[in-house]
Design goal:
CATH class: Alpha Beta
Bound molecules: 3-methylbut-3-enyl trihydrogen diphosphate, magnesium ion
GO molecular function: ditrans,polycis-polyprenyl diphosphate synthase [(2E,6E)-farnesyl diphosphate specific] activity; magnesium ion binding
CATH architecture: 3-Layer(aba) Sandwich
Largest sheet: 6 strands, parallel
Cofactor: Mg(2+)
Keywords: Magnesium, Metal-binding, Transferase
Distance between the termini: 30 Å
Radius of gyration: 19 Å
CATH topology: Undecaprenyl pyrophosphate synthetase
Strand order of the largest sheet: 3-4-2-1-5-6
CATH superfamily: Decaprenyl diphosphate synthase-like
Family: Belongs to the UPP synthase family.
Number of strands: 6
Structural class: alpha/beta
Order of helices and strands: EHHEHEHEHHEEHH
Helix content: 40-55%
Enzyme class: transferase
């Protein structure tokens, strides 16, 4: 692992989540088809995953395809699914080599069968990797995730496995697709949009946000390190006051 201090880093988020936006606009600016933007975007995803592992981030979630993205033109969806499949096929050995475990959140049943199959294969083949978790949000929507959790929870209450009085934040979290993962500390969105677009609605309650106008295919390791430097300047108070944290530090 790199000595992060040489990069000016001393406090890393445990879990970084990224809304990789702006591929289409990047391509348009260059008078290229949208797919060229998606292709270039995949290169940046690989680069950011690699540097995250190098510096010691433990979990990285990439918003790869939203539930609402199913409403895009069929041709674009087909291309995105093909690119995802190619990425998984081409990358899984490299993930194993880097000791990165791949997992996925979202309504995965909606994926084309061949993409779904490859995804499951990579999940299985990287299951023992421990250095970092790469979590792909695919066919993912925060509202859909919450509704799904509520339905399973109701079923469990009906079966008598849990009493409704016992439900709290910790228990509810275990019914989400992100079960077992820490909440994201830092959410990056590229391409300048100030919105969540249905990403990690429950989990982002106390995340720090970073929005950059840079389009995703231009977001490289240097911009990522800059973003992480901004993160370490933030004071996360979780509803308390500064002095309470300083007191704790003195102990
Ligand atoms: C992000 O880029 C990739 C996906 C949503 C799959 P976009 O395709 O949304 O690019 P813009 O926002 O149109 O520029
Ligand atoms: C969010 O980007 C989804 C992904 C990056 C995968 P969108 O481009 O779909 O978001 P909106 O439509 O601009 O909100
Ligand atoms: Mg977009």
């Amino acid at each position: 692992m790199k000595n992060i201090r040489t990069l000016g880093l001393y406090k890393l988020p445990l879990h970084v989540a990224i809304i990789m936006d702006g591929n289409g606009r990047w391509a348009k600016k260059k008078e290229l088809p949208r797919i060229a933007g998606h292709r270039e975007g995949i290169k940046r995803a690989k680069e950011i995953v690699e540097v995250s592992r190098e510096i010691g981030i433990k979990v990285i979630t990439l918003y790869t395809f939203s539930y609402e993205n199913w409403q895009r033109p069929q041709e674009e969806i087909a291309v995105l699914m093909q690119l995802l499949k190619n990425y998984l096929e081409g990358e899984w050995e490299n993930l194993v080599k880097q000791d990165i475990r791949l997992i996925a959140i979202g309504d995965l049943k909606l994926l084309p069968p061949d993409t779904y199959e490859v995804l499951q294969k990579v999940i299985k083949n990287t299951a023992k990797c421990q250095t970092m978790i790469l979590n792909l949000a695919i066919s993912y929507g925060g509202r859909q995730e919450i509704i799904h959790a509520v339905k399973v929870l109701i079923e469990n209450v009906k079966q008598g496995n849990i009493k409704s009085d016992e439900i709290n934040e910790v228990i509810f979290s275990q019914y989400l697709w992100t079960k077992g993962l820490p909440d994201p500390d830092f959410i990056i969105r590229t391409s300048g949009e100030f919105r969540l677009s249905n990403f990690l609605l429950w989990q982002s309650a106390y995340a720090e946000f970073y929005i950059t106008p840079i389009l995703w295919p231009d977001f490289n390791r240097f911009q990522f390190i800059e973003a992480l430097k901004e993160y370490q300047r933030r004071e996360r108070r979780f509803g308390k006051i500064s002095e309470q944290f300083r007191e704790k530090d003195r102990k």
